[in-house]
Amino acid sequence: MRVFYNFCVVGFLVVGLFATPISAASLLPSESPPEEMAVAAADSKAQAKEIPNKFEALKRFSQVLDLVERNYVRDVTQNDLINGAVKGLLQGLDPHSTFMSADEYKEMQQTTSGEFFGVGIEISMENGQVVVVTPIEDTPAFRAGLQTGDVVLSINGQSTQELSLQEVVSRIRGPKGSEVELTILHSDVKSPQTVRIVRDAIPLTSVKSKKLEDGYYWIRLTRFSERTTEEMREAFKNAEKESKSAGGIKGIVLDLRNNPGGLLDQAVSISDVFLQEGVIVSIKGRRENTEHVYEAKNQFDDVRAPMVALINAGSASASEIVAGALRDQKRALIIGDRSFGKGSVQKIIPLSDGSGLKLTVALYYTPSGSSIQAEGIVPDMEVAFEAPRADDKENPRFQLREQDLNRHLENGKDKKSSRDKTKKEEGKEQLARDNQLRIALQVVKSLPKMQGIKQ
Length: 455
Description:
It contains 11 helices and 19 strands. It has helices at 2-17, 34-71, 78-91, 102-113, 140-143, 165-172, 228-243, 264-274, 318-328, 415-432, 435-452, and strands spanning 98-100, 117-118, 121-126, 129-135, 151-155, 158-159, 179-185, 193-198, 200-201, 207-213, 216-221, 251-255, 279-285, 292-295, 307-311, 333-336, 344-350, 356-365, 381-382. Helix 9 (318-328) links the parallel strand 15 (307-311) and strand 16. The protein is globular, with a radius of gyration of 28 Å.
């Protein structure tokens, strides 16, 4: 009973400190009124009662630990048992709190700052099921057809119900070029589907941009990693140069669809690019040191063009912070579907042995004071996405042009104008296959007139 003995020693030491009876009255000034003395006495009794309860729980834990260590059918180390107990403790709190081994903690750090290999999905644990929050664009999972809301039933034949969320992540990741077999249940079908996906490097470039029309730009954020704000500012610099002859940037469509989130500071700095003042987001937790209000600052390179933001069910966490700030501050019109609804703040706490905790410590609140948690951001204009039909002859995705052929002949025109024409074609193709983007462009072009209408 090695562990039990250690807890008992601690227990006797602590209880020994309170062995001498001390009355509440002896701790209060003699002039204290009787009602204050009664309250103090009640508090003292509650504290005294709480201490034995805590040690009873620790005693029970140590007994179970010792029984399992001595009697379980297989030999298990005390370290493995305690790690499992810690994982269970955190997993029982909420879907996002978890314990990470040293290797898992290192993998988590790589997700936001370095290159890693996997299939490219953001996942969450909901009601004991591993659910796809969103597939990351241009990744093996995205190309394999995984969708928001899909349930991952097994990985290489092992049921995910037996695994923690971090263990699922570790098993899905692996060396580049290796294959992983996932059993997926799509939200719109009844039978599971087995998908074999070859792992690849997951791109950490988080910003894409494209000219839709002269002066109007599509800015797509795929995640919030360490360089997202820097990448977005670079995209705007290029857009300003390109649109100078057309009178500058006239409108922006900020695309946050299927963006699973990421770093809080990046969500704040991205929002600050579009806002000159006011609250961006506030976080409130159980303790005072977890409460903080983030506000926008007026910067010389802030973007002031009219804008629309696109969201859907795959927009989570940091994406919802940005969308909530832009909506509540009346800076942008939000179009699309209701967002995912992950409004909790996780703190990463490194431990001395290289492992770490990811612990939920607070909730996000939009500038208007509403919580995102389990509610999400409701768009100003709800527009469902309509997937382009594969048999649609007018869908540019399936068109092949001369310029797409290898070794095609040039027509003798200026190469720069040819590139500009290609960019225009790319924008048209993007609009042709994305109904939400088409509506967003129409709205952002109309915003100056709409804002001029007297209410």
